[in-house]
Write a structure and sequence with these properties.
Its EC number is 2.4.1.17. This is UDP-glucuronosyltransferase. It is found in: Membrane. It catalyses: glucuronate acceptor + UDP-alpha-D-glucuronate = acceptor beta-D-glucuronoside + UDP + H(+). The protein has 17 helices and 10 strands. It is of the alpha/beta class. It folds into 2 domains: 189 residues, no CATH class; 169 residues, Glycogen Phosphorylase B (Rossmann fold). A 6-stranded parallel sheet has the order 7-6-5-8-9-10, sandwiched between helices. A 4-stranded parallel sheet has the order 1-2-3-4, with helices on both faces. Helix 3 links the parallel strand 1 and strand 2. Helix 2 runs parallel beside helix 5. The N and C termini lie far apart (63 Å).
Length: 424
């Protein structure tokens, strides 16, 4: 398929600008979801190119939770069974559609939320606003996707909310012990870490690096999507000055390909080493890794938890804030707000994580909980998939709440009758 608009990539680039303080505005978030709708329309205008998939007679389609267009397309292809799968914690709007209780009073929202597990009144107010904003915006997405499918496919195409609510299972790429404890449905299956391979031996090159540093190695990576030269020169200088204060540790930092400018900035600091790639999961398993400085992408957070390594999180956008707060809530790390980022904030966080034994103790406990829990993710995922393929559908797991409108769901009609009767 060709000829797609670039608006989604452009909005994502603007949204994810490293130190942009305005990613949580209504306009910024509306812009990115509007681009997703455009992308959906581009696909539907080319539906003839993938029409052949409808004749494949799929037994099962797994659809990502982020985009309702995927779920509607899955329904269009007429599989025998349909399941939703998340790339991280469940989104507020997914909870709404599925009939999972909303708890913004104590559950941090997924998008751009710097709130933790225990919130003050101002934080709960902010979290509630984030929940309202996310719910409203994604209700708009649902409405637009419905309109698009009714325009391009059929005027009688079913409501996408109903399609999602009828998903037989909901797989969540998170871990019960790591995530904030929350209410879920019978069909919510946690599979955080599924597919994560067992650590492999390091090459001699990386094994040699692991032997550096009198007190160990600190791993530094801000993900594959972050172009390291997009850090300002001042930000990089502040970071490297902070690293130089911990001369007993060796810092191994992943940078973008060809980023000679970053190497030049740290050329006189002996305890920093740069590579353009490293086997992150394998390195995190090494006994000489003492901490991980990360952007807080969910896969990195999950690998950190499964390997039992304390972390320092510098989040930039979307779920990274919540992911960092999740680690902080479990006392496995510290989060640095991008608006506070600098030499001193980084030094303070590193002193806390490297020298306070509670962080390594909590990280090791988390590793133990995840590795020894009765239901391991790979086995759990495969067993449920096989069960679903046998049964083809599981309507018994759909709660009545998923079929109710918001007035009935929240008992606002009951409450209004109660208020009116008291007034009269």
């Amino acid at each position: 398929m060709k000829g797609f608009r670039d608006r989604f990539l452009e909005s994502l680039r603007d949204y994810g600008e490293l130190f942009n303080p305005n990613t949580n505005t209504f306009y910024a978030r509306f812009k990115i979801i509007s681009s997703q709708i455009d992308f959906c329309e581009d696909v539907l205008e080319r539906i003839h190119e993938i029409e052949y998939l409808k004749h494949e007679k799929f037994d099962l389609i797994l659809s990502n939770q982020i985009d309702y267009c995927d779920a509607a397309l899955a329904h269009y292809f007429e599989p025998k069974a349909f399941a939703w799968i998340s790339t991280g914690p469940l989104h507020e709007n997914n909870n709404y559609v599925l009939g999972i209780p909303a708890m913004p009073s104590y559950l941090p929202t997924l998008e751009d939320s710097e709130n933790g597990g225990e919130m003050s009144f101002p934080e709960r107010t902010h979290n509630f606003w984030n929940w309202v904003l996310a719910t409203f915006l994604h209700r708009y997405v649902s409405w637009k996707v419905n309109r698009l499918f009714q325009k391009h496919i059929s005027p009688n195409f079913p409501n996408v909310d109903e399609i999602c609510a009828k998903s037989s299972l909901v797989f969540v790429n998170n871990d019960e012990f790591l995530d904030f404890a929350r209410p879920i449905l019978h069909k919510t299956i946690y599979i955080g870490g599924a597919g994560l391979q067992q650590p492999k031996p390091l090459t001699p090159y990386f094994e040699n690096i692991m032997n550096k540093g009198n007190r160990g190695i600190v791993l530094v990576s801000f993900g594959t999507a972050v172009y390291t030269p997009s850090f300002s020169i001042q930000n990089r200088k502040e970071m490297f000055k902070a690293f130089s204060e911990f001369s007993e540790y060796h810092f191994l930092m992943k940078i973008s390909s060809g980023d000679n400018g970053t190497i030049e900035l740290a050329k006189n600091i002996s305890n920093i080493e740069f590579v353009e790639w490293f086997p992150q999961s394998d390195l995190l398993h090494h006994s000489n890794i003492k901490a991980f400085i990360s952007h807080g992408g969910f896969n990195s957070v999950l690998e950190t938890a499964r390997r039992g390594i304390p972390a320092i999180i510098l989040p930039f956008f979307y779920d990274q804030f919540r992911n960092g707060k999740m680690l902080e809530f479990r006392e496995m790390g510290k989060i640095i707000s991008k608006k506070d980022f600098g030499k001193q904030s980084l030094i303070n966080a590193m002193k806390e994580v490297l020298y306070n034994p509670k962080y390594i103790k909590a990280a090791e406990r988390m590793r133990n909980l995840i590795s020894k829990k009765p239901n391991q993710p790979d086995e759990t995922f495969l067993k449920w998939i096989n069960f679903l393929l046998e049964q083809e559908n599981l309507p018994e797991l759909i709660p009545i709440g998923a079929k109710m409108n918001i007035i009935s769901y929240l008992s606002l009609d009951v409450f209004s009758v109660f208020i009116n009767s008291n007034w009269s």
